[in-house]
Amino acid sequence: MVLPIADRLRFHARSIEHGLLKLPRLGGRNCTALLATMPQSGTTWTMYLLSLTLAKLYGLPPPVYIQDHSIVGKPIYPQIPRIINSSLVPHYLLRSRALFRFFHFPKHLIVVRDLRDSLVSHYEKQKSDYKVDFSTYLRGDVRRKMYRNDIWTRIHYMNGWGAVVERHPEQAAVLKYEDLKADTRGQLARICDHFNFEGVTPDLLDEVVAAASKENMAKRENPKYHVVRLDPRPADEWYSDEDRRFVAEVCRRYLKYTFGYRFW
Asked: Which of 6, 164, 206, 258 has its CA 20 to 30 A from that of 173?
């Protein structure tokens, strides 16, 4: 798919806007680590796993709701590692090797997911607001006027953070949602090691993984906010053949960092 010239200019302008204006507060006094998450990539699950882990390590009460960000996200406890969360595209400065060499920056964990599944998850939650069919939503809006998160949002996220990971592999680790789902305990152990958590034991990992199962998380949802997806249908069933061709062509032309996913 080749975008019209006007939309191609909008796409690149949006990349520049993201890269120049979105700079999280990443100084050493502001956070210990940054959790960067693609929309609908298991953000709540990842944050809840980390929150339960830190609660056990530091003797804190566990979150009442899975959407509670008082331990991870917007931490309020001064004695724990300060992990903030962002779904923003990284500022261009974060892609600079020189900046990381001369200034202190925290560890990063970049959470990604197959954008095809991520788009289905978002649409399921927002379709009553968007009032369009899935194929219409899938094509998105380069002008960024119709949808809060679309395929273009995800392409910008993957391109931006892919560049950070390429330039700073020692600081920026990647967590794929699919890997977390397949081996939750192993991936949680890897995350804890990346963030240099001390005192993590096999028993602690087992307890945290059990407490953060989909069934247990569904019981701890804030009734005002539904985030646990219980629809068992595979995401692929949402896509027509034409939809699949659209995704493949858009990704082939505009996605620079695939994170190992095969889109074409």
From this structure: 206
